[in-house]
Amino acid sequence: IESRGDDASKVDHYLLFLKALGVVVPDELDAGLSHITLESIGGEWAQRLSRPYAGVILGSSRYSKDWPEEGYRGLLERWAVAGVGSVVLLGDRSKEDLARRLESVTSPVEVINAVGRTTLEELVGIIHGARVCLGPDSGPGHIAGALGIPHVTLFGPTPADRNAPRGSEDLSVVSAL
User: Which is nearest to 171 in space by CA: 21, 54, 45?
Assistant: First the structure.
């Protein structure tokens, strides 16, 4: 396949490999995840989460892509003023301390800490039940894209045009730093 620059979607670029191999590419690219919902995972999360809620993904696999704590704190405080009711914090165990500190944001926003407390299936179900998600360029952001959940992606060192979750390309926030 031909080379693509940083202004071409990585997902679309990868799909060219399939087409070159004669594989029919489906119109919907849900990665086989669309059947996993908040209701299907059941248990604690299905009972605990009230709708509507927003998912906030803390961190990525690369520290250089992470957003600072004060950014997340400021977001939660602004959402409180805007009347956002519930926020679910999502991420792996490496972000547990950050999540505990962010839980202290006062009402009226209900902050539910799911960081380091979900299986992969539960993470998918929680993301699928969210109205919107926000976080850095990360795997959970691309799960949101695969499920058709709007994802506001916070970009730093990686190019937004190349790496934005499918369907949320216009929701990229790019750092000038």
Answer: 54
